[in-house]
Amino acid sequence: MWQRLLLGIIGQPAGSSFDPAASARRILAVLRARNREFYRDTAGLTWNIAMPVMMIVAFAFIFGDEPKDLLKVGLLGGDPGTLSQPATDQPGFLGLRHVDFIPVDDRNAGIIKIERHQLDLLLEPGDPSVYWVNDDSANGYLAERLLLGESALQAGTDGAALPQRQAVSGQALSYADWALPGVLAMNVMFGSLWGVGWVVVRYRKNGVLRRLKATPLTPFEFLTAQVISRLAVVLGSSSLVYAGAALFLDVPMRGSYLTLFLTYAAGALCMISLGLIVSSRLRTEELADGLLNLMSWPMLLLSGVWFSMEGTSAAAQALSQIMPLTHLVSAARAIMIDGAGLIDVLPQLVLLLVLAVALLTVASKLFRWE
C-alpha cells in the first residue's frame, strides 16, 4: 500500500512554485493510504467501537440502583473553610453528622441539581432561611425533616423563624447518563492521541517517513492528511458509540446534535494536535506510548470524566482547568444534559480551537522525517 503511495507521489513533480492542485492530490493520496490502513485492521476497528459501548452498559449495570443514603445538602453562599470545620463546631442543622454540605455559588445551578436528585436539599441561610427540596426524592424528604426538626429546636431557644419551603420537581439523573459525555470524550482523546502519536512514530521507525521525505510531499501536507484522516475516524467511531449507547440506554439529549458534533470535532482537533507534538521527533513506540500515557491519565482523572470535581481540593480544580479534556467534557455534558446551545458552549469551543491551532503550529515546527 505504501509502495503504491510513494510511486503516486513521486510521479507528481514538485515544480518551482507552489501548486495548490498538486498539493491537494498529495494530501489526498496520504489520506487514502492512512484510511485504508485503519479500516483494514478489523480487530482494532472493532475494539475502538465496542469498548466504549461496553463501558457505558457496564456503568448502567453497576450504578443502576438507587442512590446511597448519604445526604448531600447544597449551601448557597457557603464558605468552604467554614464547612470543613468539625460538625460539632457548627450551629443547628449545619452541625449534623453524616450530612455532606456542599457550597453552591449559583442558585439556578443548585436548583437544577435538586431537580436531578444530585443534591438532596438546597439551603440559603438567612432570616428567614429558604430551602429547595424535590418532592420525589426520598433523601430530600429525610433532609427536610432534619432541617425542620433542628430549626424548630432553634426557634424554641432563640425565637428564630422557620425556613421557607420551595418545592422542586424532576427525575433523577443516573450515573450512566451523567458519565456518557465523558466516556465519549475519553474515546475521542484515546483515538486522537494514539491514532497519530503512536502511528507516526511507527512510520518513522519503519522507514516510511524516510521514503516519503524523498518525494515532493511536504511536512505540512503529510500532517494535514493525518489530521483529516484521524478526525474522520474519531468522529465516525464516536458517532457509532453514541448510537450504540442510545440503542441500549435511554440516554438524555436535550441540546442540538450539530452543536454536540462541533464540540467533539473541536476537542478531537485539539487532541490530534497534541498527539502530533509527541510524534514529531520520537523514534520508538515504547517512548511514545509512555509519554501518551503520561498525558492522558492525568486528564482522565482530573477532567470530570468519571466523577465531578466539585468538592475536590482547590489545587485539583485549578489543575483540571488547564486540561483540554475538562473543557470538552463540560461542554458536551452541558449540551446533552442541560440543553445548552452553541452560544453557551462557545467559550469552550474557542479555547479548544485556539489550543488546536497553537499545538499544530508547534508540531509542524518540531516535525522531522527522520
Contiguous low-pLDDT stretches (5 residues minimum) are none
Biggest sheet, open or closed, and with what strands and sense? 5 strands, mixed
Into which percentage range does the β-strand content fall? Answer: 5-15%
Q: What is the 3D shape?
A: elongated
Number of helices: 14
Question: Topology, please?
Answer:
Elements: H1 2-10, H2 20-40, H3 42-62, E1 71-76, H4 80-83, E2 99-104, H5 107-115, E3 121-124, E4 130-134, H6 138-158, E5 164-168, H7 175-206, H8 208-213, H9 219-248, H10 257-279, H11 285-302, H12 314-320, H13 324-338, H14 342-366
Parallel strand pairs: 1-2, 1-3, 4-5
Antiparallel strand pairs: 3-4
What's this model, at a glance?
By secondary structure, this protein is of the alpha/beta class. It contains 14 helices and five strands.
Describe the structure.
There is one protein chain. This protein is an alpha/beta fold and about 375 residues long. The chain has 2 domains: about 1-60 and about 175-365; about 70-170, D-Maltodextrin-Binding Protein, domain 2, CATH 3.40.190. Helix content is about 65%, strand content about 5%. It is built from 14 helices and 5 strands. It has helices at about 1-10, 20-40, 40-60, 80-85, 105-115, 140-160, 175-205, 210-215, 220-250, 255-280, 285-300, 315-320, 325-340, 340-365, and strands at about 70-75, 100-105, 120-125, 130-135, 165-170. The chain has a 5-stranded mixed sheet. Helix 4 (about 80-85) links the parallel strand 1 and strand 2 (about 100-105). Helix 2 (about 20-40) crosses helix 9 (about 220-250). The two termini are about 20 Å apart.
